[in-house]
Design a protein that fits this description.
The chain is of the alpha/beta class. It contains 9 helices and 7 strands. A 7-stranded parallel sheet has the order 3-2-4-1-5-6-7, with helices on both faces.
Length: 243
């Protein structure tokens, strides 16, 4: 796996911290990593963006943004309102391909969900994945409501013939409610893909050195970690609180 596209079921589900965790695990294994953020919205010219945050947490990674727009909107809308050129899928695929020549792993982190528009022609992160023939990692929420958005995204990926490599829960609560505990079993079923990790809530607030040391424990071996879905589910039984 040279290029991995990371998307989410929506905004604020933990895409950036998941990207950082995957990067940190890869760096710890001695791999060279690049994080590509095609379109960064909601930040000014010299402000800290998502790729910067991934690098802060993960360590020695290359970062690249292709477009930056000040308003916190969908990339196509933000570009149009700012009077700036949008980022198109072909440009993203080209940039990822160049990074892949010099890095063992390239992580392409989208904005919002899979079908958020990059340009006014309707280009999306799904088109980027298709151009790259790259697997997609889906970051999902833990609790009530996540099954619907997860299944819809997974169905769209399958409809397009794209490879959904697995799911990661972007923020697992310290005190999980019944819906969250049940979702550990239900999420892989509705997605038709394995659960490959669960990041603890607030993981991005850890000091970088601690984040890097703990990240492999949040991710399954398929993502370079040691996390085990069955063992995790047993520690959060549906019938009650963690044992």
């Amino acid at each position: 796996m040279t290029v991995l596209v990371i998307t989410g079921t929506g905004t604020e589900v933990g895409k950036t911290v998941t990207t950082a965790a995957v990067a940190a695990a890869a760096v710890a294994a001695g791999r060279s990593v690049a994080v590509l953020k095609p379109a960064q919205t909601g930040v000014g010219p010299r402000e800290h963006g998502d790729a910067d945050e991934a690098a802060r947490l993960a360590g020695a990674v290359t970062t690249l943004e292709l477009g930056r727009y000040p308003e916190p909107l969908a990339p196509a809308t933000a570009a149009r309102r700012a009077g700036l050129d949008p980022v198109r899928p072909g440009a993203v695929a080209e940039a990822a391909g160049k990074l892949a020549v010099e890095h063992d792993l390239v992580l392409v982190e989208g904005a919002g969900g899979l079908l958020v528009r990059l340009d006014d022609e309707g280009g999306t992160l799904a088109d980027v994945a298709a151009l790259l023939d790259a697997p997609v990692l889906l970051v999902v929420a833990a609790g009530l409501g996540t099954l619907n958005t997860t299944e819809l995204t997974a169905r769209e990926l399958r409809r397009r013939g794209l490879d959904l490599t697995g799911l990661v829960i972007g923020s697992w609560p310290g005190s999980a409610d019944l819906a969250s505990r049940c979702n550990l079993a239900d999420l892989p079923v509705v997605a038709g893909a394995p659960l490959l990790g669960a990041l603890p809530a607030g993981a991005g607030g850890r000091p970088p050195a601690l984040f890097r040391s703990e990240a492999p424990g949040w991710l399954a071996p398929e993502l370079g970690g040691t996390w085990d879905a069955d063992a995790f589910a047993l520690s959060w039984p549906e019938s009650g609180a963690s044992s």
